[in-house]
């Protein structure tokens, strides 16, 4: 098997990796934002629930969570059959989204805390409603403050996607391992490393541009 | 006689600390009132309570005849917004919106309140910026302005809603000494135009020259209220005399 023979397989693996990356980002960021706002609510019970959720998601391995969603949920007593996600990719994506939402919630909460209280006061004396203040003053500043941490999290995510290999999906890592077994040659591993590097690098550039665009 | 603000028996505590004990004040149209006194005397909490940044515990505040607070009871948020629509405030730390340029800082609130079309408001913003001497900065981001320029933009922003009352909370305290003059000049111009203003300040000279009344606060009480000469030069209250004596030397 030559390089040109296994390259298409690797690219296909990359596609699964990239697909998982985007699906996780697209769903976990808004979900994380909702968690942040729920956490800032005045209701004590809601805050307790959110912080318990974040504790579980950050305090246990993502790999365990993936296994739990794919292999574990069907064994839930009574309602197990309704919780079964038979598609491997969907199950993996659900675990990733739930896990990353917790991290994004914490990142956004940090951003929210960094918005100066003078900003709320200025908005208030100018007659803005609470909703208007949130939409026009707080959120844009929160996103800007959070951007470097979000960028960091996104780069971690691109590498974390390799974990779905464990439930048998043909992502970049899984494909690479198969090729190495067939070719008894280390080069596929090196190629995979380069693919991951390129993806991380592109992300780094994109976030740098975003940071520059939204600098103030 | 047009009474713009009436304050009766205002009380306010932060935890166990009573910062406003029994404040009474009448503000007439065109008054420029300098609020002076040692730090911790309750000047800022008092000013902030007039625009609902601090909720008071007791007493009443009437703005242009409408009750912002009556015996410590406030109306709905919407009602408060309507009562305070013609009251503006300028802060010590400017509080410009850092993610918006000067124009958008000025246009945001009036656009949201539908006080005019973008074109009309744009024109108004430019006029006000000319008045504070910053017309050429209309597209600048706040981060690119000096402290004095930021404060002048903040004043122009407060003027966008054509306020009847402007409150200033130590408008020059965060500025380098050489930049205070440009901000005080803008406030002085406003006083010539008969803008009603309440100014918490440490600039005694400015208070003497620009204010028609001085309110002296200490430990949550109003110790003196009168013309600048009466309070700053000729007060018979020992605490007031001591305060100004210390500042002069």
Write structural notes for this entry.
The complex is a heterodimer of chains A (216) and B (249). Chain A contains nine helices and no strands. The mean pLDDT of chain A is 93. Helices cover 81% and strands 0% of the residues of chain A. Chain A starts with a helix and ends with a helix. Chain A has 216 residues and is mostly helical. Chain A has a domain of 149 residues: Orthogonal Bundle (MetI-like fold). In chain B, helix 3 crosses helix 4 and helix 4 crosses helix 5. The mean pLDDT of chain B is 94. Chain B has one domain: Rossmann fold. Chain B contains nine helices and ten strands. Chain B has a six-stranded mixed β-sheet, sandwiched between helices. A four-stranded antiparallel β-sheet of chain B has the order 2-1-4-5. Chain B is 37% helix and 26% strand. With 249 residues, chain B is α/β, with parallel strands linked by helices. In chain B, strand 4 and strand 5 form a beta hairpin. The chains are: A mainly alpha (216), B alpha/beta (249). Chains A and B meet through helix 6 and helix 7 of A and strand 6 and helix 3 of B.
């Amino acid at each position: 098997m030559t390089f040109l023979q296994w390259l298409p397989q690797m690219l296909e693996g990359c596609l699964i990796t990239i697909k998982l990356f985007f699906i996780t980002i697209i769903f976990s960021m808004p979900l994380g934002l909702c968690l942040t706002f729920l956490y800032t609510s005045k209701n004590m019970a809601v805050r307790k629930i959110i912080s318990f959720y974040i504790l579980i998601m950050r305090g246990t391995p993502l790999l365990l969570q993936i296994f739990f969603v794919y292999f574990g949920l069907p064994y839930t007593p009574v309602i197990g059959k309704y919780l079964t996600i038979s598609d491997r990719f969907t199950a993996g994506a659900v675990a990733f989204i739930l896990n990353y939402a917790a991290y994004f919630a914490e990142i956004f909460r940090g951003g929210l805390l960094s918005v100066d209280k003078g900003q709320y006061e200025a908005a208030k004396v100018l007659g803005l409603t609470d909703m208007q203040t949130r939409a026009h003053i707080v959120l844009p500043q929160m996103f800007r403050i959070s951007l470097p941490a979000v960028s960091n999290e996104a780069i971690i995510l691109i590498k974390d996607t390799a974990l779905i290999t464990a439930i048998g999906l043909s992502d970049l890592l899984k494909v690479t391992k198969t090729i190495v077994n067939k070719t008894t040659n280390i080069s596929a591993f090196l190629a995979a490393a380069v693919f991951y590097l390129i993806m991380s690098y592109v992300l780094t550039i994109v976030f740098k541009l975003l940071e520059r665009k939204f600098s103030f | 006689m047009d009474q713009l603000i009436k304050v009766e028996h205002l009380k306010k505590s932060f935890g166990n600390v009573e910062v406003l004990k029994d404040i009474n004040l009448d503000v007439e149209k065109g008054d420029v009132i300098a609020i002076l006194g040692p730090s911790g005397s309750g000047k800022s909490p008092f000013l902030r309570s007039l625009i609902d940044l601090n909720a008071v515990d007791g007493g009443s505040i009437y703005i242009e005849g409408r009750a912002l607070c009556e015996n410590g009871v406030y109306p709905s948020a919407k009602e408060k917004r309507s009562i305070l629509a013609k009251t503006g405030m300028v802060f010590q730390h400017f509080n410009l919106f850092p993610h918006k340029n000067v124009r958008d800082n000025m246009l945001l609130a009036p656009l949201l309140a539908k006080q005019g079309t973008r074109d009309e408001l744009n024109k108004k913003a430019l006029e006000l910026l000319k008045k504070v001497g910053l017309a050429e900065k209309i597209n600048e981001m706040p981060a690119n302005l000096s402290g004095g320029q930021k404060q002048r933009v903040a004043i122009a922003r407060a003027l966008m809603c054509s306020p009847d009352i402007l409150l200033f909370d130590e408008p020059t305290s965060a500025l380098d000494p050489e930049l205070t003059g440009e901000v005080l000049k803008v406030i002085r111009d406003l006083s010539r135009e008969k803008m009603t203003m309440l100014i918490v300040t440490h600039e005694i000279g400015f208070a003497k020259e620009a204010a028609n009344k001085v309110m002296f606060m200490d430990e949550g009480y109003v110790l003196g209220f009168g013309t600048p000469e009466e309070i700053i030069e000729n007060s018979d209250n020992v605490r007031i005399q001591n305060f100004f004596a210390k500042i002069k030397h």
